[in-house]
Amino acid sequence: MSQATVQVGTGPVSEEDLVAVARHGAPVELTEEARRAVATSRARIEDLANNPTPVYGVSTGFGALASRHIPTELRAQLQRSLIRSHAAGSGPEVEREVVRALMLLRLSTLATGRTGVRLEVAETYAAVLSAGITPIVHEYGSLGCSGDLAPLAHVALALIGEGTVRDHRGQALEASQALEAAGIEPVVLAEKEGLALINGTDGMLGQLVLALADLDQLTRLADIAAAMSVEALLGTDRVFAADLQALRPHPGQAAAAANMTDILAKSQVVLSHREVCGIVQDAYSLRCAPQVAGAVRDTAAHARSVAARELASAVDNPVVTPDGRVESNGNFHGAPVAYVLDFLAIATADLAGISERRTDRMLDPARSHGLPAFLADDPGVDSGHMIAQYTQAAIVSELKRLAVPASVDSIPSSAMQEDHVSMGWSAARKLRRSIDGLRRVISIEILTAARALDLRAPLEPAPATAAVKSVLREHVEGPGTDRYLAPEIEAVVQLAVSGELVAAAERITGTLR
C-alpha cells in the first residue's frame, strides 16, 4: 500500500509522520508556507554574503577555523570542502529507517526558514527522500554536539552527487548514478548551505522518536506477557485492582494494572487460585509487574515531552532569526535528547529484567507450582526451555551494560573549541540495541508462558491470553519433545514486530493503554 505524501512546513513534524516516512517510505513535499519562509531567509543570507564584515558560517571558516575570512570566489569550494571533510564516518551502516528519519528532520528545519538555504536545496533534499534514495551513513562519527555532524554530512554528500547511497530497492551505488536515475540534479552549495545541512540533532532525535513508537507497543506486549505468566504460575489478579493502584497514583502504573486486569478477565486459571491455591502472596516479578511497566510508561511520557519540544525546534548555527538577524548560538548541543535516551535505556533494561525473572520462575519446579522442570516433556531426557532462559539472561546482562549513560561522557574536539559534547548519538545507538533486546526477552517469556498454559490444561486461560496463544500456535507447536528452538523464538519475535500478538489480545479487550 502506497503511503500518503507527508507535508513538511514551518511547524513541527509529528511522530506519526516521522514513522510513516522513516519506516514506510512515505514521500514528502514542502508546503507553500515553507517555500516562502525559505526564500525570505535566503535573501538575508545573500545580503550578508555581499557585506565585507565577516559572518560566521557565511563568509568564514568553521569551528576552530572560524577566524579566517573567506573571499567570495572560494565560498563554493568552502561549502563543498566542509561536506567532504565532515563525511568522515566509520563502521557498519546505520539502518535505513534511521537515515530517513534524520533526513526528514533536517528537511523540517530547512523548511522553517531559519537556516538560510536556497529553496532549490530544500527541494532537492525532499526529492531525494521521496525517491527512496538513502545515503550510506556509518555507526561512528557523531559526538552529539554541533549536531550529528558526520551522519548528516554523509547525507549532504549525496545531495552534491558524491558518496555512496542505496536506491529504493536497497542496491548500493554511487550517488551521482542514483540521482541521475531519479531525475534529480545535484546541488552546488552556496554560502551557509553546507553548514545548514549538517548542524542539527536530527540523528539522535529521529532515533528517540522511533524508540518511543516501539516502546508504545512493547509496554503493552509486556503487560500481555506478565498476565500470561501470572496465569501460568497460578497467580492472582487481585493485586491489580484499581483501588489499590490509586493509593499510589502514577499514571503509567494505573494503565499497566488496568491492562493486566482486562487481559486476565474470565480466566479459569486465576479463578483456581482464588478457590484452592494456598499461595499467600505472589513473587515480586508478578505482583509488581504494573509498577515496573508503569514506570517505563511514565519515563517514555517524559521523553516524549522532550521530543515534542525538539521537534518544534529549528536547530542550526548560526541561525536566521525571525527579525532577520544571523546569530551564533548553542542550540545544537544534544544534552536534552541525550539524557532521555539514556533514561529510556535504563527503563528498557529493567523491564527486560523483570520479564526474565518471570520466565525463570516458570522453569523451576520448586517455584512453578506443579509445572515440570524447564517445561520439558521428559525432564532429563529433554531440556525444554532451559536454554531459552539462558538467552534471556544473556540479553538482560547486555541491556544492563547498555544502560550505562553515554551522556555523562565528553571528549573535547576541534582544538578545544568544542570542549563539551553530549554523546547523544551514542546514547541513541545503544537504545536501539536495547529496544531490540527487550523485544526478544518479552518474546521468550510469551513463548514460555504459552507452553506453561498448555500444560495447565484442562484449566482454561483468559479469552485474551488464549487469543494470543492461538496466534502463536499458528507458527509454533505446543508442548512436546525437544525441538530446534531458535526458529521458534524468532517466529515469536516477528509476531511481536508485526504487532500481531498485541492485536490478538486487543480483539478481546479493546485497545490496551
UniProtKB/TrEMBL annotation:
It is found in: Cytoplasm. Pathway: Amino-acid degradation; L-histidine degradation into L-glutamate; N-formimidoyl-L-glutamate from L-histidine: step 1/3. It catalyses: L-histidine = trans-urocanate + NH4(+). It holds the Pfam family Lyase_aromatic. It comes from the Bacteria. One of its GO terms (molecular function) is histidine ammonia-lyase activity. There is a cross-link at C145-G147 (5-imidazolinone (Ala-Gly)). The modification 2,3-didehydroalanine (Ser) is found at S146. The keyword Cytoplasm applies. Contains an active site 4-methylidene-imidazol-5-one (MIO), which is formed autocatalytically by cyclization and dehydration of residues Cys-Ser-Gly. CDD domains: PAL-HAL (cd00332). It is an enzyme of class 4 (lyase). Keywords: Cytoplasm, Histidine metabolism, Lyase. Its EC number is 4.3.1.3. HAMAP family: His_ammonia_lyase. Belongs to the PAL/histidase family. This is Histidine ammonia-lyase. The gene is hutH.
